[in-house]
Amino acid sequence: MISSIRVVSLVPSVTETLLAWGIEPIACTRFCEQPGIAHVGGTKDPDLVGIEALAPDLVVFDQEENRLEDYQELASHNLKVESLHVTSVSDVGTELGRLASIVGAQWSYSLDVPRKSRGLKAFVPIWRRPWMTVTTGTYGVSLLNHLGVDVVFSENEDLYPTLDDEALLKSEPDIVLAPSEPYPFGKRHIDVLEAIAPTLLIDGQDLFWWGSRTVQAIQRLDRQLEAFDEKGL
Quick one: which of 59, 117, 216, 218 has the fewest CB in 10 Å? Predict the structure, then answer.
């Protein structure tokens, strides 16, 4: 049975997950890549008046991706709001299990991909000019750790630190894992990236979008790393 709950999703990976569960949100953000669903602004600038006018049964937020003030504003208008907080692959089961219960979805999560011990040291750029990366306490780093990849600068106190060229070169990574988002790294950046270390272009959604795709994303990235290992760093 498909749930008839009216949901507004302000989290791209949640929008994808709800659709996988057979629940089509009545609205989502422009970053959710769902042109057939009404858009209510972005993750940081949602159209609060428009959301309220839709009279949803539930508005889904992410604690990191969305703003607290937007959550509080909608809650103050007596809308049911739910904020998720996923910082690791193990959080996925807990947080999405809670959401599934709220929306009436049948869902179970089993992380049946064994933890790997590659011992690879990777630089994971999320921005260029200036360079930025991700650190411990983020879902992406947790996913890579599960695949046996240590991320350079992961112990930095900032979740998304800015780096200079000198610090980056001193970190001596074995590999650059360049995701397709939030910065659109692609083939045109290979020369710049390979000046740092051998480079593998990866799907940014597989790395950063937690939810219904998590297990298959881990499997896909694992296969990419295995193929790269076979070619030799």
Answer: 117
Distance of alpha carbon 25 from alpha carbon 98, whole angstroms:
17
Which residues have C-beta within 8 Å of that of residue 230, sequence separation ≥ 6?
A: none
In the predicted model, what is the mean pLDDT of the chain? Answer: 95
Residue 169 CA: distances (Å) to CA of 132, 134, 189: 14, 17, 17
Alpha-carbon span 134 to 162, nearest angstrom: 9
**pLDDT tens string 187-201:** 999 999 999 999 999
Measured distance CA(72)–CA(48) in Å, rounded: 11
In the chain, what are the domains? 7-103 (3.40.50.1980), 120-231 (3.40.50.1980)
Helices (H), the chain: 12-20, 48-54, 68-76, 89-103, 139-146, 165-170, 190-194, 204-208, 214-231
Contact between 46 and 37 under an 8 Å Cβ cutoff? The reply is no
